[in-house]
Design goal:
Blueprint lengths: L8 E8 L1 H4 L6 H10 L4 E9 L3 H15 L3 E5 L10 H8 L2 E2 L2 H11 L12 E4 L2 E6 L3 H11 L3 H8 L5
Parallel strand pairs: 1-2, 1-3, 3-6
Antiparallel strand pairs: 4-5, 5-6
Helix pairs in contact: 2-6, 3-4, 5-6
Length: 165
């Protein structure tokens, strides 16, 4: 069965990585996020890789929410402890409502595999009609995090869009 475009959620995957943005590393995490996001069912309408620059991150998030009006933004990277890891801070500056249960579920799932999952500082929140979710930068972290939340996302996205759920 093939879904019509209007039945699919519009999704942006934004990888935030200095090395990937310079072509020094392949963005495996962003590819995994795209593949898994399509299963909700979603259409990835934009995929970008940018450096860990707060103003650029905020600008992209605002544009995706306010101009593209996508349903879901998945960020990968920038959630660790280094000085350049600023994705949660940039996200917090653009969201209107925080959704703490999503990153809690992701970290709980990750802790089943590694104690390092507690070190992810990713957040989730809503701006206008868009849900933004910060995923870790590692391929494994992205996969496990998305597997933990994917089944609940359609219900949340329908609530945000005020669609029947």
């Amino acid at each position: 069965m093939s879904l019509k475009a209007e039945d699919m959620y519009s999704i942006v995957v934004l990888t935030i990585s200095d090395k990937c943005s310079k072509g020094q590393r392949e963005d495996k995490s962003g590819k995994i996020a795209q593949d898994l996001a399509r299963t909700i069912p979603g259409e990835v309408v934009k995929y970008e890789v940018i450096p860990d620059e707060p103003a650029m991150i905020k600008g992209k998030l605002v544009s995706y929410c306010d101009d593209l009006k996508v349903d879901l933004i998945l960020t990968t990277g920038g959630t660790g402890f280094t000085a350049r890891d600023v994705t949660p801070e940039a996200t917090r500056e653009v969201i209107e409502k925080e959704v703490p249960g999503i990153p809690e579920a992701m970290r709980m799932r990750g802790l089943q595999s590694t104690e390092r999952a507690m070190l992810s500082r990713g957040i989730a929140g809503i701006r206008k009609k868009t849900l933004i979710v910060n995923l870790p930068g590692s391929s494994r972290g992205v996969k496990e995090s998305l597997e933990a939340i994917l089944s609940a996302l359609p219900h949340g996205l329908d609530m945000i869009a005020e669609r029947e759920h």
